[in-house]
Write a structure and sequence with these properties.
By secondary structure, the chain is α+β, with helices and mostly antiparallel strands. It folds into 2 domains: 193 residues, Triger factor/SurA peptide-binding fold (Orthogonal Bundle), CATH 1.10.4030.10; 99 residues, Roll (Chitinase A, domain 3), CATH 3.10.50.40. The chain is built from 15 helices and 7 strands. A 4-stranded antiparallel sheet has the order 4-3-6-5, with helices on both faces. It is globular, with a radius of gyration of 26 Å.
């Protein structure tokens, strides 16, 4: 099989050179690595480097600093692209492509609903205005989802259900302090979107809504009349119950400071302003309790990182990976780092 794939690689290169000889208008894309039947090209690397530079600039780096940092990480970027290619191929082999495409489409539809956008083309134009290319966003999502879906199916799910009753009980007995009841809160929300609106006006409206709620006006009525969530009439702003220790601090901090029945001050997000009401609160206790799902999850969180590395190492081992000689010294030490460590 590997010999056959190697032959395909030679034919690919021959075809590229042959076509270039026929017409000078054809640009031959340099092949950095062959990954089974796929290839990693220089144009793909340049595209990923460009995106990485832009991300660093958005974080505050100067263009020169960002360019230098990305250049220094070139070997790591190539190794990541090779791993991404392996995950994409495995996802296709497992028949996950349609599920991944559906998830990507669902994400775009959710954005459209939240921003009151009626067509995909309008969404594309709105994204373009803020410097987001929809096709690049789709590619980034697909890359991450291929990795996530494959690892969840091939590693996490098998690991989660593979723990025996004895292993669960032994782990619980040794780690009872991990299984005390955490503080939880049940929340409702009013969300005001920035989309197509003056941000200062949205923030001011949020302050006024908080004042009206605290003065005694009905939260549900105000949520239905003002929230930009598309399903607010059905949900009436109701969310779910959350563990405080699992919430992002930008939400956890104001929630901790809010009494049951009261609302937080406006929480400013990138996409809008959020007002949260604490509907119920359950205090944490020091008493330990056995919950099979919680114990399985705790075991999974400890064992999954190493098992994921082993899976990816085996995926590389079972694949045909040929790195161009000019890039091998830069890439191989990073790409096969886990394999070298396992031998030591």
């Amino acid at each position: 099989m590997k010999k056959f794939i190697a032959l395909l690689f030679v034919l690919f290169m021959f075809s590229a050179v042959h076509n270039a000889q026929e017409s000078e208008a054809v640009v031959v894309d340099e092949v950095i690595a062959q990954v089974n039947e796929g290839v990693v090209t220089l144009s793909r690397l340049k595209r990923e480097m460009k995106q990485a530079i832009e991300a660093l600039v958005r974080e505050g780096k100067t263009p020169e600093q960002a360019k230098q940092e990305v250049e220094n990480r070139k070997g790591e970027l190539i190794a990541n692209i090779i791993n991404d290619e392996l995950f994409a191929q495995k996802a296709k082999e497992l028949g996950l492509d349609s599920e991944i495409d559906a998830q990507i489409n669902q994400r775009l539809l959710q954005i459209m609903k939240e921003q009151n956008i009626r067509s995909l083309e309008t969404l594309r134009e709105e994204m373009k205005k803020v410097g987001i290319d929809m096709d690049e966003l789709r590619q980034a999502w697909r890359k991450q989802l291929c990795r996530d879906y494959v690892l969840q199916r091939e590693v996490d799910s098998k690991l989660y259900w593979g723990f025996t009753a004895r292993e669960l009980k032994e782990y619980y007995e040794k780690n009872k302090q991990k299984f005390t009841r955490p503080e939880t809160v049940t929340l409702s929300e009013i969300f005001l979107s920035f989309a197509g609106k003056n941000e200062a006006a949205v923030k001011e409206k949020a302050k006024q809504l908080v004042a009206r709620i605290r003065a005694g006006e009905d939260f549900v009525k105000l949520a239905i009349e003002n929230s930009d969530r598309p399903n607010v009439k059905e949900t009436k702003g109701k969310l779910q119950t959350y563990r405080i220790d699992e919430l992002d601090e930008k939400f956890a901090k104001p929630i901790r400071a809010t009494k049951t029945g009261d609302v937080t001050d406006p929480i400013v997000l990138d996409e809008g302003v959020l007002i949260l009401r604490v509907d119920e609160r359950t205090a944490a206790t020091k008493e330990s309790y056995f919950d099979e799902d919680e114990v399985r999850r705790a075991l999974l969180s400890e064992k999954a990182p190493d098992e994921r590395k082993k899976y990816l190492a085996n995926l590389r081992k079972d694949s045909y990976i040929k790195i161009s000689e000019s890039y091998r010294p830069l890439v191989a030490p990073i790409l096969f780092e886990d394999e070298r460590r396992s031998k030591n």
